[in-house]
Design brief:
Elements (H helix, E strand, L loop, with lengths): L5 H12 L3 H8 L3 H8 L7 H10 L11
Helix pairs in contact: 2-4
Length: 67
Amino acid sequence: MKDINLDNLVRDAVKKSGLSQYRLAINSGISHAAISRFMTRNQTLTLRSAGRLLAALNLRVKLEPGE
């Protein structure tokens, strides 16, 4: 099974969105400072924060049973 790094997936989604960190902070309710630390790889995300960022980007993660 392939390991998936949620932090990297969310970072890529943020970059592709074109939203500023400031706008993402407003939309997600996560502080701009926390988003900045996350994007510079100085902090990892909690599952709750990842969900809030993805919701602000209008994205979701779907978990399915493995084969």
